[in-house]
Amino acid sequence: MTELNLAAANIILNAALQEAGSKGYRPMSAVVLDAGGHLVAMQRQDGASMFRADIATGKAWAAVAMGVHSRALMKRAADNPSFFGALASTGQGKFIPQVGGVLVKDAEGNILGAVGASGGTGDEDEAICIHGIVTAGLKAD
Questions:
Q1: Separation of CA 107 from chain center
Q2: 82 to each of 78, 85, 86, 90, 104, how far by Cα in Å?
Q3: Other C-beta atoms lying within 10 Å of the C-beta of residue 64
Q4: Whole-number Å distance between alpha carbons of 78 and 52
Q5: 140 forms bridges with which residues in the sheet?
Q6: Residue in 35, 56, 68, 32 with CA at minimum distance from that of residue 122
Q7: What is the pLDDT, as a whole number, of residue 2?
Q8: Does residue 123 contact residue 43 with C-beta atoms inside 8 Å?
Q9: Does pTM surpass 0.85?
Q10: Which pLDDT belongs to residue 102?
């Protein structure tokens, strides 16, 4: 696979949100972005607040923009808040370095895009992203 298509994105989202439901997590939103940060697909579970889709997008956008999962970005932001504040400003608010954005890679390690989720704890958000990516036969990073 050389790009993240809609069919793969839908597999990722369906698996991620089914996992959230099976674990009893609060209602989630999840998004899949391509390697250029463009929306491929988004789903919002019934009852998920209006902010969750935007936050999930910001987590995925930050991950794909910097080429690293958002957990690592959160750690980096703690050490360099001025720079990460500038990134958020430059990204017009789309850059959210919080846990819950995971890179999607092919078998060779090429970045295809990112998945972001919001609604649970950061660990829950990240876990459902990883579950969705792996279910689609791709690598989560």
A1: 19
A2: 10, 5, 6, 12, 28
A3: 26
A4: 23
A5: 104
A6: 56
A7: 78
A8: no
A9: yes
A10: 98
Cβ atoms within 10 A of the Cβ of 108, count?
6
* pLDDT tens series, the chain, 141 aa: 678 999 999 999 999 999 999 999 999 999 999 999 999 999 999 999 999 999 999 999 999 999 999 888 888 888 888 878 777 778 777 888 899 999 999 999 999 999 999 999 999 999 999 999 999 999 998
Write down the residue that tokens 């997590």 correspond to. Answer: 25
Contacts of 29 (CB under 8 A, 6+ apart): 42, 43, 44, 45, 48, 52, 53, 55, 56, 117, 118, 119
Which tokens belong to 79? 């050490």
Query: Which residue's structure tokens are 């895009």?
Result: 113
What length is written for the chain?
A: 141
